Amino acid sequence: MAPSYVVTGGGQGVGRAITERLAHEGSVVVVEIDPGALEWTEAVPEVHAVVGSAAELDVARRAARLAEEYGPLAGWVNNAAVFRDADLSDDPETVLDLVRTNLAPAVVGCSVAVASFVASKRQGSIVNVSSHQAQRPVRGALPYATAKAAIEGLTRAVAVDHGPQGVRCNAVALGSITTERYEEFLSADPSRAAEVEAQVARLHPVGRVGQPAEVADVTAFLLSSGAGFVNGAVLPVDGGRAAYGPDPEER
Length: 251
Description:
This protein is of the alpha/beta class. It is 41% helix and 17% strand.
């Protein structure tokens, strides 16, 4: 019987690419808070939708139960995120709320995934979607960077705690990816779009930003048996951005 997977925030952007990639392997349950981002799933018989917040325990459990109806749950991808800037000049409660908004879906998802794998006595794999900002924050994105750093710590802790139960947990740390959000970022100032795009490309040693399908391929690998001895890893999928230290004295 083909396996099943759960992808949070799987209706658009990187999440959609991951969902479409995993649909080649089995059934996929998408957890998405925006019903409008799920319309495309109606034409894909392998993809099933759960509308709701991935941070809510009942929603995550509903996704796990639905996945098991279509096949043994084999993998869980915590991709749901909110992009909203804030800094310490704002009310600390605002900052903490934003950190929780990005961290809670990963904590809840890991909890439900581990419980499902252990209850079924099957091995399973979790992939958490992180960012280069966990190591090198972008100015103004303090809550997001803080949450992503916590998610990478969560990844290692889950791997250590639940590896003996047959549960692997890894993360992918993304550079700039050509999602709808990235395109909106460029279109915000059309007169500078080409300049900004060139600047962003220079941050990545491969000379370009990434494609959602490239993230999906790496995620699918980490969920697969081919990565059976990979556990507690944070794998950069960033074209070398995290490794690059721009220097004004470079030739």
